[in-house]
Amino acid sequence: AVQCDVLLDDVTESRLLGLVEAAKEHIFIYTHRRMAITADDVSLEDVIPIDLDFAVVESSPEELVLVADTRVRVSYKDESLELKLPFGSHSRRFLGEVIRAWSDERARSSGPAPTDESPVLAVPQLGLRDNLIRCELLKNEDLYIYREHFFFLGTYNVNGQTPKESLRPWLSCTPDPPDFQELDLSKEAFFFNDTPKEMEWTKAVSDALHPDAKYALQVKLVRLVGIMLLFYVKKEHAEFISDVEAESVGTGIMGRMQGNKGAVGVRFRFHNSDVCVVNCHLAAHVEEYERRNQDYKDICGRLQFRQADPARPPLTIMKHSVVFWIGDLNYRISDLDAADVKDLIGKKDFEMLHAYDQLKRQIEEEAVFVGFAEGEIDFQPTYKYDTGSDLWDTSEKCRVPAWCDRILWRGKDISQRHYRSHMTLKTSDHKPVSSLLVVGQIKRVNGDSYKKTLEEIVRNLDKMENECIPSVTLSKREFHFEEVKYMAHQARTLSIVNDGQVPCQFEFIRKPNEATYCKPWLTANPPKGFIAQASADVDLEVFVNRTTAPDLNSGKQEMEDILVLHLERGKDYFISVTGSYLPSCYGTPIRVLCRLREPIRDMPRESLRQMAEKPLDIPKELWMMVDHLFRNAIKQEDIFQQPGLRSEFAEIRDCLDTGAADSLGGNHSVAEALLLFLDALPEPVVPFAFYRQCLECCSDAVQCEKVVSALPQCHRNVFNYLAAFLRELLKNSASNRLDVTIVTIFASLLLRSPTKQDLAEKRKAREFFQHFL
Amino acid sequence: MAKQYDILFRILLLGDSGVGKTCMLRRFTDREFDTGHISTIGVDFKMKTLEIDGIKVRVQIWDTAGQERYQTITKQYYRRAQGIVFVYDITSESSFQHIVKWATDVDEYAPEKVQRILVGNKSDEEPRRRVTREEGSKLAERYGMDFFETSASTSHNIDKSFSRVTELVLQAHKRDVDNLLGSLDDYLNKAGLDESGQDKVGSIQRVCGCARIF
Fold it and tell me: Does this entry carry the keyword Transport (chain B) (predicted)?
């Protein structure tokens, strides 16, 4: 369960969420009072089943400044809830569970076949990064985890002797220094106060350790008089050893009191493993194997290690994941006389001898050392020799040789590299035995490699993430439109190729302080879109109309713009669009046109703004059109009623702007061009400032005359000129079939409202104009 | 295991066209370097995860078009940045002089608390050097900024400079949060006098929620 906020419209309310499994999993939503301490404080509000109609999507915060609370949208069929979960691992775990339940549900329903693509795309990204990192770390464990640790185990019954020779042949017999050395130096003698000898042996051992590594003595155990256990570890591992405990038990009737038989054990924790080393000295004599079995059971039962936490039960030997058992176990070779044994040894037929080895037999019968392993013995028995020689016991007893000194282990992933005796040492009546064991179950994290691996993973993830940032290539970054003319549409295609690894959504976005994504003479079509793969084409269209023409004509504005193409969750691209605009009489004020004696395109741009010349009475362009109509179309049927041709309009416009040809074109086209001209005037023939006045006096002819006479001169000229022209046209209404509608058309062009014209205003405008016809 | 990122910052690269902003970014995030120069026309970004003082910081580094004609547009990106890296080219005197202009723009458009450093890039091109180390460091000092000479080509100081600006942003952010927590504490102390215990518990928990950011 988790606490969260539900965002309901503008209100945020707290709810508790629970994930409940009942046949299917459900999200239970509870309302709650205050802190919700008891069940009385909560009441169930809603249950959302997690099935195929369910969806959960993490909303990405617009501003990725801080990692804040997690917002998710949970939806079921048509309903959806916006939830805000508090930042932290608790919420993350909850969402992780919900998502797991959800994806299980989908996996169940879709069966083994892969689902279609869209739900795959919708898989939420919750904690994905953390999981990926964890996954990668696990996958690359080999890079930063060492699994092989070498344990050198040695057992040497020194028989109460003092060290007389170097122990190197025994202790440094491996080519590489082992990680651990656990050594048994037991002696078969009753000495209650033997401190000097211990010191001597300890020194002898320390001197003989593998010279290629530095070892730290971790444990030196001298117990039960006669058993000495030394435990060394390579210095570099010392810091990872913890929870070291040592215990000892005596065995047998005597042993409980004082005996020289029994065991010492040491346990420690190393990284993830608990290791226990037992060194024991079991009961002697050939026939006593059952006592030895008993001793073993005794040791297993009674050797217990206290735990750091006193509340926890003590640890027995078998609770350890790695157990080494070394020592003079004292099992003999029985049912063969000394001569036969020596004969088999001479023939190196150790295999045959194994059949008579008590320990092997007892293990086979599962009477002792259950679960332990021992390596193949292919060295001759280590007991009993004449001290100082390699000769078998020549004493009266003439003991049968035996493998008394043994090394066994228990645990997973342990293998033996060698198991041998060391014949060159002659101090004792025993020969030392050693075993090198490789323990694979211990996972040791190498800090540096771990860091390196983690860094590498994070870097790769960053790289992957960067590669997954939506990205496109554009066919062109700069677009230039040549010869842009009034009302002439031009288009270029911008190809957007998705070169990223994810589908992307593009949109042209607004620039600061601008209302739209581009200048009014430009459009991008479509202005937004989605590219799954491949590419999309966007038409960049340029069209100058009456709204945009005035500033372009006057040179107040240049034809240039920068479009910002934004990819959702991705980068922004700038696309510059320029055009060379050819100024036109269309959209140029009457006042300016009257001062242009030359065609507008021949005039330098600056001169359009500052001219001192004596003005013309009316714009020559207007005259050209009206004159054309007057001469050619005064009797034209349906003049001003039938539309012109688009192509002819372009020619007419060019004629007017360049002063080129004498003949403008078809009558209907010229008539329409005239109407368009009036419509494009930035300031209508009756300037906006006079509009109200005209409407107010529309019923009074004298007043109307008065208003017109007050218009600026060029405007007045144009007004009167057009009125006169219309009067001429109306005189010929029998042929051109003009009626009162022409008055309405002209009235609405000459008297344009600064705002929107309603019907009443239209009527008044017509009434006003009527006076002049 | 700890969460892989605790916090996300935006850092903006600013400087004249051709000083090596894109190369610095590529060197930092992809460990790659291209000698060819393609003008960035637009605003590009890349992500990078850094660990600073044990905090995993994700930085989104924005590479902007340096060309003058785009500057009115790129300015709108300033306000979203917590850190700014001013870059000039040690072989170009004008790019160095323009830093003043870039800095003025930042003063005007970026958030007040934005953290800034100055970087003189192309330090590997010693023979062509036009701006001395001292000049760079003096200018940085005047603005109270840390200064680095870097080379995207040899990778010299690249990690260091980006880490430094991120560190500065992180520190500033910590100060912000501390102040916020401080004022919350004040508020709680006052509120504690006349509010019931129940409500107080709620408020205190909210404070703990904030504190957990670090």
Answer: yes
What's the DSSP call for residue A512? T
pLDDT at B84: 96
Q: Which fold has domain A472-581?
A: Immunoglobulin-like (2.60.40)
Q: Looking at the complex, does the CB of residue B24 fall below 8 Å from at least one CB of chain A?
A: no
- Which chain A positions have a beta carbon within 8 Å of B3's beta carbon? 89, 92, 130
User: Tokens standing for A302?
Assistant: 């009674």
Note the pLDDT tens digit of each residue in A660-706. 766 778 889 999 999 999 999 999 999 999 999 998 998 888 999 99
* Burial readout A18-29 (b: 16 or more C-beta within 10 A, e: otherwise): ebeeeeebbbbb
User: pLDDT-derived band of residue A468, with 50, 70 and 90 as boundaries?
Assistant: confident
Contact A405, A157 (CB under 8 A): yes
Q: Does B76 touch chain A (CB under 8 A)?
A: yes
Q: What is the CATH number of domain A148-442?
A: 3.60.10.10
pLDDT of residue A616: 86
Residue of B5, B72, B202 lying closest to A35 (CB–CB): B202
Residues in A closer than 8 angstroms to B47, CB to CB, are 462, 465-466, 469
Mutation for testing the A interface, residue in B25, B28, B76, B80 having most A CBs under 10 Å: B76
Q: What is the mean pLDDT of residues A390-414?
A: 89
Cα–Cα distance between B1 and A145 in angstroms, integer?
Answer: 16
- Which chain A residues are Cβ-neighbours of B44 within 8 angstroms? 571-572
Q: Which of A114-123, A234-243, A430-439, A540-549 has the lowest mean pLDDT?
A: A114-123
Using the beta-carbon criterion (under 8 Å), do B45 and A469 form an inter-chain contact? yes
Alpha-carbon gap: B17 to the closest alpha carbon of chain A (Å): 15
Going by CATH, does the domain composed of A590-770 fall within 1.10.555.10?
yes
The answer to whether the CB atoms of A564 and B42 lie below 8 A apart is yes
Residues of chain B with pLDDT under 50: 1-5, 194-214
Reported as a single tens digit per residue, the pLDDT across A155-198 is 888 887 888 888 888 888 888 888 878 777 766 543 444 556 77
Asked if B75 is an interface residue toward chain A (Cβ–Cβ < 8 A), one would say yes
pLDDT digits (tens, 9 = 90+) for A552-582: 988 888 999 999 999 988 889 999 999 999 9
Spatial separation of the C-alpha atoms in residues A276 and A409, rounded to whole Å: 10
Could B209 and A64 be called an inter-chain contact, meaning their C-beta atoms sit closer than 8 Å? no
Residue B46 touches partner A, C-beta closer than 8 Å: yes
Q: What are the residue ranges of CATH 1.10.555.10 in chain A?
A: 590-770
User: Is B47 at the interface with chain A, CB within 8 A?
Assistant: yes
Q: Where in the sequence of chain A do the CATH 2.30.29.110 domains occur?
A: 2-113
For A460, the closest chain B residue by CA position comes to B30
Whether B148 has its CB under 8 Å from any CB of chain A: the answer is no
Q: What is the DSSP annotation of A65-92?
A: SS---EEEEEEETTEEEEEEEPSSHHHH
Q: Do B29 and A477 touch (CB under 8 A)?
A: no
CATH for A2-113 is 2.30.29.110
Q: Exposure string (b/e) for A119-155, b if CB count within 10 Å is 16 or more?
A: eeeeebebbebbebbeebbeebeeebbeeebbbbbbb
Q: Per residue in A294-322, pLDDT tens?
A: 889 989 988 888 887 888 888 999 999 99
- The residue with tokens 């014949």 is A423
Is 60 exceeded by the pLDDT of residue A67?
Answer: no
Q: Tell me if A512 and B75 make a contact (CB, 8 A cut-off).
A: yes
Whether residues B1 and A511 touch (CB distance < 8 A) is answered with no
Tell me, yes or no, if B212 comes closer than 8 A to chain A by beta carbon: yes
Question: Where are the extended beta strands (E) located within A271-311?
Answer: 273-281, 304-305
Dist CA B9 CA A759 (whole Å)? 59
Give pLDDT, residue A708: 92
Place of tokens 């040894």: A345
The CATH 2.60.40.10 portion of chain A extends over 472-581
